[in-house]
Give the backbone structure.
Amino acid sequence: MAGKKELSAEVGYAGNDLDRQSDRRDDADYVAALMKDSEARTFVIAGDNVVLERDSDGHRSLYTFAEAALMGAPRETVFLGHDGVGGVFATLLSDGPQDLGPDPEQLSRAYRGAPGQGFGQQRIDLRTIATQGLVSGKQAGRLAEAKSLLYWHSRHRFCSNCGAPTRIEAAGWKRVCDGCKGEHFPRTDPVVIMLAVDGDQCLLGRQPRFPRNMYSALAGFVEGGETLEAAVRREIREEAGIETGRVTYMASQPWPFPCSLMIGCLAQAETRKIKIDETELEDARWFARDETLAMVDGRHPDFFCPPKLAIAHHLLAAWARGET
């Protein structure tokens, strides 16, 4: 059906168009045949980083299993889906530290755009890959699936019920404990990210870890027994002291850091006085619509917002342009 493209389709990591074939994951023979097929390809993940190979034509992120075997011993291999040509998999190397993440300076460079690197194989974090456009939007979305799933596997090698080792089943979409027969499934953590608005002004904040002069939408994890709307109102009240009323959904974004789903919302402010939680925020302030648009367009003289990779950018842009 023709019509306006949904906002969620514009965010980073949303370009994953693989046929996940979830109904075939339990067919071990089918998955094994896909892996043996000459068209099979796999992403290679080392800890928090993706193995890319740079040449004169750009960056390559998919490899044959023979090529992947030369990069290191595999700890886990999972089936992501079918791209219409062959099976697409992801392999986690055994030598990659599982909790490796970008330091603040690396994060700042990623937001601003770090310079390109040399030729050959490189291990690069997914945030930098997407920010710099080292792979296509479609491949970035597939890598988000790969990284989230493999991170979950790296943290669930033992049963949370009895402590015994677990093993992969369902092509990587389940772990089974032979000790207590428990079954464990990948999890996605829901996170609300929201704009509190009052007329032609919106509330933005900054965390100490942000690059200097960057402001963004407030965000926080949804807690057990909580609706999305209640989480939005609670987080805004806790972080900035602002009471909000009506909450409306805007867009969502897969966020593989490590395995979250960002749920973007708009909240109508009922109070104006800001009182920040200094353990969460360094600052928060109201921004006028024209000032927000200047941040989105990169022409504000003092402040900037997250890049197009992040859902926060698209929430701000949609509101500033009157598209909500």
Observations:
- Residues 137-154 form the longest helix (18 residues).
- The two ends are 21 Å apart (CA to CA).
- The mean pLDDT is 91.
- Residues 7-155 form one domain.
